[in-house]
Amino acid sequence: MKFDVDGKQTTCFFGQAKSFLKDLSQRKKIVLITDEHLYKAHPRLFYSWKTIVLKPGEKYKQQSTIDQIISQLIEMSADRQTMLVGVGGGVITDMTGYVASIYMRGVSVGFIPTSILAMVDASLGGKNGVDVGLYKNLVGTIRQPEFLLYDVSLLKTLPQAEWENGFAEIIKHACIQDPSMFRQLEATPIATWQKKPLLLTDLIRKNVRIKMKIVMSDPYEKNERKWLNFGHTLGHALENMHELSHGKAIAIGMTYASCVSMIYTGFKSVDRIVDLLAKYNLPSFARFELKPVMDILAMDKKKQEGHINYVLLNKIGKPDIQPITTKELSQIFERIQSNL
Ligand SMILES: NC(=O)c1ccc[n+]([C@@H]2O[C@H](COP(=O)([O-])OP(=O)(O)OC[C@H]3O[C@@H](n4cnc5c(N)ncnc54)[C@H](O)[C@@H]3O)[C@@H](O)[C@H]2O)c1
Ligand SMILES: [Zn+2]
Fold first, then answer.
1. What span, in angstroms and rounded, lies between the C-alpha atoms of 160 and 157?
2. Is the domain covering 2-158 a CATH 3.40.50.1970 domain?
3. pTM for this entry
């Protein structure tokens, strides 16, 4: 699959990472960037390549890690002809993309995403960057990778909780774009995807197409790309307040957004979304403290002239964006919680 974003081409390959890297190295000088979990879980993949191994986790998605990567690149004599290849989850692909866009004012970059979330979301679309303290993704650039290599065999070592996290984004894609994929998810437990690599590859392909179609039509998030924020307004607020994984936070966000949709668009399928989330071991109607959440959302509101552009659903597969005031939202959230 090939995608053209803003005149820059990204090619997606499906195959074996080890042989892909061997072929690539005949044409390019490559440096791999990964984290300790991947390095330990797949030692044969990294054997014989120059590799920068980082500490794993969001905690290390900070500028200080970028500085360490740059020092190691200098030690390795990386130059403008060097290609950086990020092998890992979204933390690694975000940081590799960022370093590639600033090292020597830009070197080429490709990704081998190894988590479901990185495969269907983080490694696609060119956004990259780091957190600054608690501010997530505050600093970064937009730079499209030259290639993505999907090797689903690498997922064998992905922890169960990370599978569930990644499926939250797949459910999001189904909600905003694909009613037939939604039905397929309803009919298929997570264990089936884990046991059937061909079926899983097909699902990943579908999700890559959904995200890239949206990104290509709106690379700078002026219109359609906002749909990808379905469940994320409330989700991000919850993620910042509690020790909650991104997948769980947006699962709650999608549930509340579908309830808000019921009021604003007449959306009728809240139950289907709640049941699907439960099937993938994701939460739905979790209780949260209203005041701090509304304070965070009110900060968002200032950026958008008095209201929040909330991503809603008309029906499964048909998104809609409507301006809603924080006062209205607060009343709706309160009503939902009083019925729990
Ligand atoms: N750039 C974007 O458009 C975009 C979109 C969505 C998310 N993101 C970013 O992505 C990040 C989240 O990505 P993530 O969920 O992949 O997190 P992650 O990179 O932290 O990976 C999750 C955990 O799984 C481990 N892991 C990954 N693949 C593995 C494998 N195959 N085997 C064993 N362990 C493995 C990692 O070491 C880590 O401990 C966040 O920083 C988020 O901001 C970016
Ligand atoms: Zn997300």
1. 9
2. yes
3. 0.95
